[in-house]
Design a protein that fits this description.
alpha+beta, 2 helices, two-stranded antiparallel sheet, about 90 residues, elongated, about 20% helix
Length: about 90
């Protein structure tokens, strides 16, 4: 679950109210606990000569984590339905 706590909700005009966005664990945008910045996704280290095996290991790891679409461009851009701040 992901929460967005903005200072005001422009939709209903209530200041200080938290808006909750729920992201399904099956969504590629969902971050599981092990998906932290700097996490090691494969034991195979790229050394400049082992690209084929390294690429296969990275692609497999990303596929298992449902994140492969970020590098092969199969995830479509989401549409933000909220108007940008400052526009009337």
């Amino acid at each position: 679950m992901t929460k967005d706590t903005r200072n005001g909700d422009e939709k209903n005009g209530k200041k200080g109210e938290a808006t909750e966005f729920i992201v399904s664990p099956q969504s590629p945008y969902y971050l599981h606990a092990p998906d932290a910045h700097g996490a090691i996704i494969t034991a195979i280290k790229f050394n400049g000569k082992n690209y084929d095996i390294w690429e296969k290991a990275v692609r497999t790891a990303l596929k298992v984590k449902n994140k492969l679409g970020f590098i092969n461009r199969t995830i479509t851009k989401t549409i933000d339905l909220a108007p940008p701040k400052g526009n009337a």
